[in-house]
UniProtKB/TrEMBL annotation:
Keywords: Methyltransferase, Transferase. Belongs to the class IV-like SAM-binding methyltransferase superfamily. RNA methyltransferase TrmH family. It holds the Pfam family SpoU_methylase. This is RNA methyltransferase. The lineage of its organism: Bacteria, Pseudomonadati, Pseudomonadota, Alphaproteobacteria, Hyphomicrobiales. The keyword Oxidoreductase does not apply. One of its GO terms (molecular function) is RNA binding.
Length: 284
């Protein structure tokens, strides 16, 4: 057993860390900043369920962190064994260190640091019956996380992020996806790249728009693979994207609210597109 001056000691393949000033702990804490996530192409997932999901879906794990009091749980032992087998580092830490890493008073007992996974837009070749979500400059981490989670639940095939969007790998967004961030391909694209891709992808782009002339329930979502194009929370869709859509849809609303939350609107559109496809499958 060896000990270093940063309050860490190595027990077999596991490094025990008790000090908040440990350089590895500092590096993990730095992942709260987008700049550090981008530079290291890493992100943090909190909770045993998310860590297991990520490992099962083949995400590359860099570091597994767990609280000393859960080290004997079979699933934690299994996750640690997988991490070591895949060349990752395993840290056993105090709850104080975990609180510091997750910025929570009641932290999850297990945290994983994983490599980000991005899909190239040119590798997205939509097939019949598939639905994608394209989000223009989505800014709210909670909205983005909820949309990724809902897209996964609705059987969508991927999420395309257009322009300057919030980071899907931020702690807040990953939390809000409840693990779905591992299940769906994520794509980054400029508006120009998205429009160029649309021309050759054989898709039907259905955009929600305040000036939308078509009730969203009357659109035929079954002719081609569908891309649901949703606008920014504050400004809606810019003209350059709206005019290229194959249909501009509106969701009829009652009451005083003049618009819906972006995640809610996207959920409504996703399940409507899905309903049409399921009806088609039932007929067949």
């Amino acid at each position: 057993m060896s000990q270093d001056h940063h309050g860490a000691r190595r027990v077999g393949q596991v490094k025990e860390v008790t000090s908040l000033s440990n350089p590895i702990v500092k590096d993990i804490k730095a992942l709260a900043n987008k700049k550090d996530r981008d530079e290291t192409k890493s992100f943090m997932a909190e909770g045993l369920k998310l860590v297991i999901d990520a490992l099962e879906l083949g995400f590359e794990i860099k570091t597994l962190v767990y609280a000393k009091n859960v080290k004997d749980k079979p699933q934690v032992v299994q996750a640690a064994t997988k991490t070591v087998a895949r060349g990752g580092l395993v840290l056993e830490v105090s709850e104080k260190v975990l609180s510091s890493i997750t910025r929570r008073d009641n932290p999850q007992m297990v945290v994983g640091i994983f490599t980000q996974r991005w899909t190239s837009l040119r590798d997205i070749r939509p097939k019949a019956g598939e639905t994608y979500v394209a989000l223009d400059r989505v800014r709210d981490p909670g909205n983005l996380g909820t949309i990724i989670r809902t897209a996964d639940a609705a059987g969508a095939s991927g999420v395309i992020l257009i322009g300057e969007t919030t980071d899907p790998y931020s702690m807040e967004t990953v939390r809000a996806t409840m693990g779905s961030v591992f299940a769906l391909p994520l794509v980054k694209a400029s508006p120009a790249d998205f429009l160029a891709w649309k021309k050759g992808a054989g898709v039907s782009v259905v955009a929600t728009h305040l000036a939308g002339a078509v009730d969203y329930r009357t659109i035929d979502y079954r002719k081609k693979p569908v891309v649901l194009l949703m606008g920014n929370e504050q400004q809606g869709l810019p003209d350059e994207l709206a005019r290229e859509a194959d249909a501009l849809a509106r969701i009829p609303q009652a009451g005083l609210a003049d618009s819906l939350n972006l995640a809610i609107a996207t959920g409504i559109m996703l399940f409507e597109a899905r309903r049409h496809l399921l009806t088609l499958e039932e007929r067949e």
